[in-house]
Amino acid sequence: MGLLLRSMGRLLTAVCLLALIVPVFGGAPVGQQGAGGRGVGSVGGVGPPPVLPAGPVPRRADGSVILGSATPSDKGLWLPQNGGAATLSGLDALPYQPWTRAMLPERQRNQLEPHTRCKPSGSARQFITPYGVEIVELRELQRVFIFDVGGPHTYRTIHLDGRAHPTPLPRSYYGHSIGRWEGDTLIIETGGFNEGFWLDRRGTPHTDAMRTIERLTRTDSRTIRYEITVNDLGAYTAPWTSGFNFSWEPGTELFEYVCQQANYADTLMVGAHTSVDRTSAITP
Fold it and tell me: Which helix (H) or strand (E) holds 224?
């Protein structure tokens, strides 16, 4: 009995010492904000961005606005202000054609979104991701690059050298984008889209006839106002405009995102949460 009590006492002492050591050497608790506001220990390392006071719009020496990092050491990404739940505003009032209005509830029941299956997403959907985007301006090349973090490791190019769209316009996920500056607003005109992506996470449809005009306006040090005008008479009876805001998440750089082709998430697959055959090798 004495030997048993002594053994139990040693075990209890070891447990108490371990409890003292772990908080010192075990790192930050789950959910604590690390550099750049990403939660240390949270799923995917993603947490809410820190609340920082907004400063003035960053500018170059010539007074022109900066859409990306203000300095080479000022790292960060742009995220939608409502995170992964962000969507375009005013969607219920869009001038849908009958077939596009009928398609929406079907897409919401059977969420076969191409973005969740490692496909690039053009137009507004590129910005609606909980992982954000990086905007890089190369003035010497007269181009702006928008890099995706989540998804298929792709990026979009906006040409600022005064060129016109090619004729005929080739079809692609991002289309062909040309841009110009009007004050603090970057205006981007894009055409040549394919039909392989959704306009937002909700499933807003479009056709390959779609043309868009996007406006990115940096309103302070940590906010960009995004506005998009969609002109697609194949899917809508008239052009329409919507938008949302981006928030700057400081201290975060592009990171590796492994997009799995065989994604079997039950809420992102056909069947509206019911049991269906998922053995097909075809990816929509």
Answer: strand 223-231
Rounded distance between C-alpha atoms, residue 45 and residue 28, angstroms? 12
Beta strand 176-182 pairing with 185-191: antiparallel
**What is d(CA 173, CA 28) in angstroms, rounded to the nearest whole number?**
40
* Rg from Cα positions in the chain: 24
Which residues in 35-56 are b (16+ Cβ under 10 Å) and which e?
ebbbbeeeeeebbebeeeeeee
How deeply is 267 buried, as exposed, middle or buried, from its count of CB atoms within 10 A (0-12, 13-18, 19+)? exposed
Tokens of 144: 């702006």
Return the DSSP state at 132: -
Tokens of 235: 């899917």
pLDDT in tens, 181-234: 999 999 999 999 999 999 998 899 999 999 999 999 999 999 999 999 999 999
pTM score: 0.75
β-partners of residue 276 are: none
